[in-house]
Every structure is written in C-alpha cells, then in structure tokens.
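Field: COMPLEX_INPUT
Field: COMPONENT_COUNT = two
Field: RESIDUE_TOTAL = 228
Field: MODE = joint
Values follow.
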Amino acid sequence: MIENKVEFVIIGGVAIIAHGVPYATFDLDFCYARSLENLKKIVAALAPFKPRLRGFPTNLPFTWDERTLQNGTNFTLETDIGDINLLGEVAGVGSYAEVFANSTTLKLFDDDVRVLSLDDLIKAKRAAGRPKDLFVLPQLETLQEVLKKTDEE
Amino acid sequence: MTEKLSKERLRKIEELFRNPPPNSKTAEAQEFGVDLSLLFRWLKLSPQERIEEARNKMIFLDEVKKQGEMARSKK
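Field: COMPLEX_OUTPUT
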C-alpha cells in the first residue's frame, strides 16, 4: 500500500495496538480515499494477494478492479496474506478526509504511516457499540487521560 | 508519537497507575478490571514494538493451539 502510494489510514485493532493497548486482532483495517486514482492504486497494491470477498462462496464471481470498489464503500476481504477490511468511512468519525485530518503519523517498519488518532479511535469504538468495542474503551480512555495529564509539550 | 515515551513521562504515568486519582478514567478502568501493569508495560514500547509484540503473542497462541492438537491426535 505504501509502495503504491495509496492514501490510507490504519484504523481498528492494529491502531489500538500501535497506540499502546494490548489487544488481539486478526485483520488489518484501512480507511481509504475514494478518488478513482486511489482506487486504482489499491487495486494494484492488493492484486498480487488475490483479494476475494470474505464469507462468500469461492465460486461466486468477483472481479478485483476499481469498478468493484466504486460500487461499494466497505469491503471485508480475504487475501493470501490475511484478512483486510477496506472502509470508505468510519462510524463516529466520518469520511476519509475527516479521518485523515486528525490522524497521527507513526513510524512503523521504517515508514511513516497514518494511524487513526486516539481520540477518534474512542469516538469510533463508542459509535460501533459492539461488546468487543465497549470492552476496549476503558483502556483507550485511560491512555487518553494519562497521555493528556503527562503531556510535556 | 513516533518514538518511545520519555522516561520522565513514563515515571509520571506509572505514578498515575499506582495511585489513580479518584473519579478518573484510570480509576474506573482499574475498577472495571483493566490490568494497568500490562497497559504500562505496553506503553514502554515504541508503536512498532507493540505491533511486533502482538504478532509474537499471536504466533505463540497459534503454537499452543498446534501443540494441543498434536497432543490430542496422539491419544
């Protein structure tokens, strides 16, 4: 995704982990820009890993191209390297532009990667409201509190 | 936040975790059952180290699962 210069922000479990909460996750969630140019980059970046729709019969026709991405917003994908979720917007936060605006840049594996901010993660988890989201909220809110109280800048 | 938190900041956070202020989110989390010592251990790592640690934990769990399956298949 980075090599292909895709416009994305990491959200979900990996963002939770990166911010400092021990958390188990088995997929990678991205919020992505919906421009046609970006959709083409996503298609090129993930094509080598044979994306297909997760939870659908393998014989169901599925074409991995920008037209498919244009026809939807959120995609739960199974790939040769693991499960990847592409979200055009984040509940409780908004569109990619809003997600990006408040995102944090973290150095991950020698690259600067945009990650959903801690404040927006909390908003997203509150909005999602599932038991697994609510369960992690006390840890995220604790982090938010102690990081604000000890902010040295 | 691209690097590890400073030692001074970690010291302040450790103090907050040891003595959560009344009615704070930290106190609520402790009451809820959050392991603040585990949270603190993760805060000492850089973002990349946290992801690597999570990945290692999942590999470990996968290995435990495989060993369990092998043990059961021998019975």
